Amino acid sequence: MDYHNHLNSAEDLVTSYEETRAGFINMALEKNRESTPYIAEAKAVKELALQFSTPKELMASKDLHLSLLTAAGISEKANAYLTDQDREKAIQAFIKNFLEPAGSNFVDELVFRFLLIRGGSLSGKMRNIAGRLAERKVTRTLIANLSVSGIPFSWLEKDTLAWISGDKNNSDIELHTRGLHWKNDDKNRVLIYNLTVPFVGNKGNNVDLCLFDTLPENIILKGSKTKESV
Question: In the chain, pLDDT over 70 holds for what percent of residues?
Fold first, then answer.
């Protein structure tokens, strides 16, 4: 198929205002969905903290220990390097410098700071999610076009790395796809997402999307199964 059927000028590659707006709305909705566990955790922290009358009493709660560390700014990575004594000092300093000055509002102060620190990890997570949303859209668009054209396809399951015969009626394929395979004029096409390419960059950089003129079994990924499943 000639590319002129889809592209006539460089402007055709520019995302339209409507598509950009829709993308931002989808990202906002996804961000809210991803933030749900953080809100639930904060509510649980508040319920536990309300059982205590003073900030110092929080030290006695084993259930609040990790939440206090989080609110104090100790990440999971940092926590792995700390001793129990280090953790106690961090919590004590947090209570003295931030919760006690808040007076009777110490529970709200704890919850706000817990959410602030936990929410910080959401930004990095959303960058990955934006890429996944784009992958899903590309995958579903490709499958739709292949199905309309009556072209059989197979897809690479991202967890098992097994090639599976495609079913256009499977509405969840794009959620679990690492790649697609189809034929175009008797030529094989294999699309793989997120592939580390050795000759890109000094040590090999991750490439979002690679398209190969080869058979699926020639694409060997770590842990992949070369025989197609039905």
Answer: 92
User: With the CA atoms of 174, 175, 179 and 183 taken in that order, what torsion angle do they form, in degrees rounded to the nearest 10?
Assistant: -20
- Cβ-count burial 144-159 (b if 16+ within 10 Å, e if not): eebeeeeeebbbbbbe
182 shares a domain with 105: no
On whether residue 3 sits in a domain, the answer given is no
Domain of 83, in residue numbers: 27-126
In this structure, what token pair is assigned to residue 51? 């059982």
In a domain? residue 20:
no
How many whole angstroms separate alpha carbon 166 and alpha carbon 144? 11
Residue 88 has pLDDT above 60, yes or no: yes
Cα distances (angstroms) measured from residue 20 to each of 25, 27, 33: 9, 11, 20
- Please tell me the pTM assigned to this model: 0.63
pLDDT tens sequence across 102-157: 999 999 999 999 999 888 778 777 777 888 888 888 999 999 999 999 999 999 99
Residue 19 maps to a domain: no
**If you ran DSSP here, which 8-state letter would residue 201 be given?**
T
